[in-house]
């Protein structure tokens, strides 16, 4: 499956806060928090559901994969979305292992597995 998605019992805002803390506990920082609904509303396009896009990164891991191949940078930083759908808050991300299948480098693919495990653990912690 291309993505990993979990349900959250919290609001989008609370989920983003809990998720940011969970990532920080795992040495990942939130570089950017983009409120897509607010931006689309501002542009008078509108969006019915809340939708936030977080870009997260661990600088040491980013350097490691970029040292192996700069092409890995096409997938950095990692994206995580928090959104409402059918009155349910969800957290989702494209799986790093799936993205890095396109990078012909076994070391990078191994790192992608570790990153995926860590990010999924943070997602699961945020919904407790």
UniProtKB/TrEMBL annotation:
Residue ranges of every copy of the DUF302 domain listed in the record: 35-96
InterPro entries: DUF302 (IPR005180), TT1751-like_sf (IPR035923), UCP021774 (IPR016796)
SUPFAM superfamilies according to UniProt: TT1751-like
Source organism of this protein record: Alkalicoccus halolimnae
Pfam families, A to Z: DUF302 (PF03625)
Protein name per UniProt: DUF302 domain-containing protein
Gene3D superfamilies: TT1751-like domain (3.30.310.70)
């Amino acid at each position: 499956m291309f993505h990993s998605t979990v349900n959250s019992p919290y609001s989008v805002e609370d989920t983003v806060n809990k998720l940011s803390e969970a990532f920080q506990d795992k040495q990942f920082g939130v570089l950017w928090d983009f409120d897509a609904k607010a931006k689309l509303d501002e542009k008078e396009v509108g969006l019915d559901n809340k939708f936030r896009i977080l870009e997260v990164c661990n600088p040491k891991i980013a350097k490691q994969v970029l040292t192996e191949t700069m092409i890995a940078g096409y997938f950095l930083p990692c994206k995580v979305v928090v959104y409402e759908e059918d009155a349910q808050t969800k957290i989702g991300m494209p799986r790093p292992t799936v993205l890095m299948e396109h990078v012909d480098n076994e070391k990078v693919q191994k790192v992608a597995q570790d990153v995926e495990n860590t990010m999924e653990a943070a997602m699961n912690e945020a919904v407790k």
